[in-house]
Specification:
- The complex is a heterodimer of chains A (about 270) and B (about 400).
- Chain A is mostly helical.
- Chain A is built from 12 helices and no strands.
- In chain A, helix 4 packs antiparallel against helix 9 and helix 8 packs antiparallel against helix 9.
- The two termini of chain A are about 20 Å apart.
- Chain B is built from 10 helices and 20 strands.
- Classes of the chains: A mainly alpha (about 270), B alpha+beta (about 400).
- The interface between A and B is medium-sized, with 19 and 26 residues.
């Protein structure tokens, strides 16, 4: 990118700067104000780490963060497992009955309004008389993020030549070994990318989580949201900055992983 | 070698390969072909890819399945490898029905058209893949991989990944990988299709030498007749799921059994007509476009039978038209008078298209045996195209 900027016209540079500012200025301001010493959100009072310090002493906030991380990790893992299996079924089991229906139903959560997903899950859990908390949020997030994993893995799997598995069988692998020894190593990067995607989606979800969580087991976004309703406190900026940092790291790793998997050419960039 | 286990067992397979060599007459049971295909049919939905096909292939043969795309040749190969199961018929390998044997248990290996090299494994690991699955000892694997790498001349490339190799090198890795298990039969699906012309020709020679030195049975699928004729000892020409003819390259070209084969293999002039008379193994055929043609033919044919006469372009010679030269070539029984319509100089040969007086075009191919153009003919020159009775082939229509 860098050498090309020199060749860009003034108009292009301005447009780029304005576009970037539109997208990222709020985040930059949030990050800067997270280091603000003042108690007032809008008044600059010099650099300080006090709000970070405060967060690490806020038991409720820490619990919520820990809850979010656990939910995200577990739901992403289950979603990756199920989503990968679904992708394998869709790509490799080409001719089964009801494939189109299965594929359509799998992708429904992609377009379903979250409020509706959340509400329907809430109704289900109430009907089942399930105690709402960690497990219900995890299940809800699994259903939300599974389809994203499937999309990512499916595109990679579709680009892998079927004859690779046949060659493996020809050389002495039974079908399961052929999958484990040849196909799986080739789709691992996309599985990792899918997991990361599911993880971040779960981490920043507030709508579905607020429907499916119970008292005493708020996730971080819910906690932040309820704090903000009582007025924005500077501490929120610090928490948000850390969440942004975490998600940025995950996204960078995920895109690196998918780039790695795209060394054959055509894996669709999932992010 | 009939009852052998399909598992890789080095000394045993070595022996099998040795006895498969045509030079070794020891095996008394060699009467049974190595591979027998009996009335095999394969349908894909309502499409019949292979239609009641029967074929015997002997040990040590280099057999080519030749046909246009969609003729079923790849399907047949895939049935031999075990990726498709026949709907009807049997496939016997060494006398044993291999229908219930899964691909990974068959003593057969396949070289895939796109090579299907494992992109995440190095050259060495690609070649060793099948050996590891067979449970060979580490040291033995190393030795065998070394042999294979030397065989396909890829020394120094062992650590590379497939995407760091050229097309020709990838082809060699694929070959080495499929040979490493020392299969009884090696199946090659369009092995040279992805190579450029020069490389293809040299690789053809290498494949032939390899097959001869290993004494292995090769079955190659190709749509390229030149490739099939160069490499194979026998060729099966396939069309619409059936074998049109199984013959040596020479017989296929010089004695095609059907009009379809004559047209598919090489270039040909065809004249439709019917049998007028038959004596002393000479058939006289009245053709619509070229008058009466006399052809040597052993078979008895009833007068009035509808036939085609096929003559290869290089069998059609030209002479300056004129009574004197005409008389001088009285042994040239079949004479077709016409005008040179166009001339294509191809380097090694020149192809003349002669427009006969009836309007039909006959092609004549002349080898350019001299550098100077003494025996050439110009466009719109009147010429006499002639060929002997032995050069024509009678095909029933």
């Amino acid at each position: 990118m860098a050498p090309r900027i020199g060749q860009m016209s003034r108009f292009n540079i301005t447009a780029l700067a304005l576009g970037m500012a539109f997208l990222y200025l709020p985040i930059v301001i949030l990050v800067i104000y997270s280091f603000n010493d003042s108690r007032l959100v809008t008044v600059w009072g010099g650099w300080s780490l006090r709000w970070y310090h405060e967060f690490f002493n806020d038991r409720a906030m820490l619990d919520a963060a820990w809850m979010s991380l656990r939910v995200a990790a577990l739901s992403a893992t289950i979603a990756t497992l199920l989503g990968t299996l679904a992708a394998v079924g869709l790509v490799r089991g080409e001719r089964f009955r009801g494939r189109a229906l299965f594929s359509g139903m799998l992708y429904a959560p992609l377009v379903m309004p979250e409020v509706i997903s959340g509400l329907s899950l809430l109704l289900l859990f109430v009907a089942l008389n399930a105690e709402r908390g960690f497990w219900t949020v995890t299940i809800a997030h699994t259903t939300l993020t599974m389809c994203f994993v499937t999309v990512v893995v499916q595109s990679r799997l579709a680009s892998i030549d079927r004859s690779l598995e046949e060659a493996a069988m020809d050389l002495g692998c039974d079908p399961v070994q052929a999958f484990l020894r040849v196909t799986l190593p080739l789709i691992v990067p996309s599985i990792v990318a899918g997991w990361m995607l599911a993880f971040t989606l779960s981490l920043d979800d507030v709508v579905i989580a607020s429907f499916t969580t119970g008292p005493g087991s708020a996730t971080l976004p819910i906690r932040i949201y309820s704090e903000v309703r009582l007025g924005v406190k500077p501490g929120i900026n610090a928490i948000s900055t850390m969440v942004i940092a975490l998600i940025s790291v995950v996204i960078v790793i995920a895109s690196l992983a998918s780039k790695l998997s795209g060394s054959q050419g055509k894996s669709a960039a999932p992010l | 070698m009939t009852g052998e286990s399909p598992n890789i067992d080095t000394p045993k397979i070595d022996k099998a390969a040795a006895s498969a060599r045509p030079a070794a007459p020891a095996d008394a049971a060699a009467d049974m072909p190595l591979l027998r295909i009996e009335g095999v049919t394969k349908n894909f939905g309502s499409f019949r890819a292979v239609d009641r096909l029967s074929l015997d292939i002997k040990a040590g043969e280099f057999f080519a399945l030749l046909g246009p795309s969609g003729c079923g040749k790849t399907t047949l190969l895939r049935m031999l490898a075990g990726f498709e199961t026949p709907d009807e018929g049997r496939i016997l390998l060494g006398g044993r029905d291999i229908a219930p044997v899964l691909p990974h248990e068959r003593p057969v290996n396949m070289m895939f058209q796109n090579y299907a090299l494992f992109p995440h494994l190095s050259v060495r690991d690609n070649i060793a893949f099948g050996l590891k699955r067979a449970g060979m000892a580490r040291a033995a694997i190393d030795t065998r991989v070394g042999e294979m790498v030397a065989l396909v001349r890829l020394e120094g490339m062992e650590r590379r990944k497939p995407d760091q190799l050229s097309g020709g090198q990838r082809q060699r890795v694929a070959l080495a990988r499929s040979l490493a298990r020392r299969p009884k039969v090696l199946l090659l699906d369009e092995p040279l299709a992805a190579l450029d012309k020069k490389l293809r020709e040299s690789t053809q020679q290498e494949l032939m030498e390899l097959q001869r030195s290993l004494g292995m049975t090769f079955i190659v699928v190709t749509h390229d007749q030149e490739e099939a004729m160069t490499m194979a000892t026998r060729i099966g020409v396939m069309n619409a799921g059936r074998l049109e003819q199984v013959a040596t390259p020479r017989d296929l070209y010089e004695a095609p059994r059907s009009r379809w084969v004559a047209e598919f293999v090489g270039d040909v002039n065809l004249f439709d007509g019917e049998v007028v008379s038959h004596d002393h193994h000479r058939l006289t055929i009245a053709t619509r476009d070229a008058g009466n043609i006399v052809v040597a033919e052993q078979r008895q044919m009833v007068t009035g039978t509808a036939v085609s006469v096929a003559i290869r372009p290089e069998k059609v010679k030209l002479w300056h038209h004129g009574p004197a030269s005409d008389a001088g070539h009285s042994h040239a029984v079949n004479r077709l008078a016409g005008v040179v319509a166009d001339v294509s100089y191809l380097g090694g040969s020149t192809v003349y298209r002669i427009k006969l007086d009836s309007g039909t075009v006959v092609r004549s191919s002349m080898t350019n045996t001299t550098r100077l153009d003494i025996h050439t003919y110009g466009v719109s020159q009147r010429v006499l195209a002639w060929f002997t009775p032995d050069d024509g082939v009678v095909l029933e229509r």
